[in-house]
Amino acid sequence: MADATTWHRDLSVDQQLALHTSATRLAEEFTGIYGSETIERFLYTSYDQFASRSTVSNFLPLLAERFARQRLQALARVEGHHRDGKPVVLFLCTHNAGRSQMALGFFQHLAGDRAVAWSGGSEPETEINPSAVAAMAERGIDITGEYPKPWTDEIVRAADVVVTMGCGDACPIFPGTRYEDWDLDDPAGRDLEAVRPIRDELERRVRHLLVEMGVPAR
After folding, report:
1. Would residue 83 count as lying in a domain?
2. Which of 5, 15, 29, 152 could form a disulfide with 11 if both were Cys (CB 3.0 to 4.6 A apart)?
3. Per the residue annotation, which of 39, 93, 115, 128 is the catalytic one?
C-alpha cells in the first residue's frame, strides 16, 4: 500500500504539515487500538471526501481529522474495541445540510451524553442551510459547528438506529440494523418561515425516538 506522501504529492507544505499533526493526534487517541497505517488511511481518504467538492482548502485538514476521528470511533464500536453501552443513532438525508443536521442538533441537545448521534448525506452540500441554522437558533441550539459530510460503511454499521430522510435508494442497508424513514419536506431553498414547521416536526419525532430508545430527554 502506498503511503500518505505518495497518495498526496500535490498537497502544499502547510497542508502536509497540518495532516501530519492530525495523524499524530489521532494516533495518540487510538493508541493500542489502531496503528499508524490505518489512521493515515482513514485520515487521507477523509481528506479526499472533502477536497473533491470544496473550493476552500484552508479548513480541509481540520475537517478531515474530525471525520476520520468519527469513522475510527465507529470502526472501534463495530469491532468491539469501544463498549460504553450508549446507543448510536445515525440521521441521513440527501445533502446533510438541513433535516439531518436539525435532527442531530435536537438529539444531541436532548440526549446529552446518554447517547451518541451522527449524521450524513448521499450528496453532501458544502455548507449547512442558513435557514436551518436560524431555525435551530430560535430554539437555543447552535448547529454552526457541524458540517455536511458523507456516510461510510463503518459509520452505518456502528449505528443501532438509522433514520433516513429522503435519500431513497442511496441510503445504505445493513442486516440487523433498525431503520426508520421520516417523510419530511426538504428545507433546501426555503426561507425561515417555511423551515419552522419542518424543525418542529423533527423535534417531535426526535423526542418520540428518545422515548422508544429509553433515553431520558433533558
Report:
1. no
2. 15
3. 93
Residues of the chain with pLDDT under 50: 1-7
Which CATH number characterizes residue 19's domain? Answer: 1.10.8.1060
Let me know whether 111 and 48 are in one domain.
no
Do 39 and 143 fall into the same domain?
no
pLDDT in tens, 35-68: 999 999 999 999 998 887 766 666 899 999 999 9
Q: Which position among 68, 88, 155, 171 bears the catalytic label?
A: 171
Q: Is 167 a catalytic residue?
A: yes
Domain that includes residue 47, residue range: 11-78
Please state the three-class secondary structure of 50-110 as a single string: HHCCCCCCCCHHHHHHHHHHHHHHHHHHHCCCCCCCCCEEEEEECCCCCHHHHHHHHHHHH
